[in-house]
Amino acid sequence: MPEAYIIDAVRTAVGKRGGALADVHSADLGARVLAALVRRTGVDPGAVDDVVLGCTDTLGSQAGDIARTAWLVAGLPESVPGVTIDRQCGSSQQALHFAAQAVMSGTQDLVVAGGVQNMSAIPISAAMLVGQQYGFSTPFAESPGWRERYGDQEISQFRSAEMIAERWGISRERMEEFALASHERARTAIAEGRFSREIEPFALADGSAFDADECPRRTSLEKMAQLSPLAPGGRITAGVSSQICDGAGAVLVASERAVAAHGLRPRARVHHLTVRGDDPVWMLTGPIPATRHALARAGMGIDEIDLFECNEAFASVVLAWMQEVGAPHEKVNVNGGGIALGHPIGATGARLTSTLLNELERSGGRYGLQVMCEGGGQANVTIVERL
């Protein structure tokens, strides 16, 4: 089977809700990383076969196939098409999978993957709620067919996070310790310049350059202990949850033929791709069976993976996953995760890929595994090999 190579990955710094990127149009946000990817790799943009971007809540500034519009806003060739996909939190990781699969199938040679999300401008779940506002639709969980299969019960990421904490016996205190480590790791990574290579500075309206993640906080266990739970009597608080934020990222995937023809230098090889489903009521447990499936299909053991990026939607999700698959915390999210760095839903997969590539190079690791819990009880797993 033909190989799929990752040539480069770039992202914006992540802006906090209402922060530096809040007023940036989503098409301009996406355009920035697409233009940067073309410039950094030196690839002929006219040779790109497709642009695949992840984005959820495709309303307003994110409507109308944001992959296509962002490419055009970047001033890149009109001959190159674009498509926008929604696999919830895993949208841009799935974009990478589609790009790699196109290359591995031999039908395409150069594909740009990535994602964009401005959560300050378009609130989370806006697409589900807008129909109700205009009286022409109801949320999926109110479908008669859904209710026949799953009953009339709350379908919520917050409920899922609580259920996971209870089932796996994860205390609030343990989650807060994990969250604190995420912030501390992220602040250390920023101070040491570990994200410098992957971040493309964004020129703001006031003329300043936005080039550092805004979300990491100087917090403490004492401060987190004062936060009210999201549900009465629950364990989940804002302090152990991913942050609402804004950002974009892009990855260039190439075939061996394209590498030779365009004089490209790959940074990694896509070793394995998996996407699996799990119980949609539990919703966020998908990374557990997906990781097991990926390792089995790849013929690898957990000890062969040098670094892991498991999206920190909630602390309970990652802690339960680590407990089940045996991934040690010292190898997981070593530069912080979504609790500290934020989770711009459609762009998070591309952010994780860029961070994973750079940390493999910095640490000298060979294999990295990236996994994401997703709405509907799904999970993508990507295993890459540093070259």
From TrEMBL:
Leading EC class: transferase
Q: Which Pfam families match?
A: Thiolase_C, Thiolase_N
The Thiolase N-terminal domain is annotated at: 5-256
Q: Does the keyword Protein biosynthesis apply?
A: no
Q: Where does the sequence pass through the membrane?
A: none
Q: Which InterPro entries match?
A: Thiolase, Thiolase-like, Thiolase_C, Thiolase_CS, Thiolase_N
Please verify whether the record's keywords include Transferase. yes
Designated name of the protein? Acetyl-CoA C-acetyltransferase
Taxonomic lineage of the native organism: Bacteria, Bacillati, Actinomycetota, Actinomycetes, Pseudonocardiales
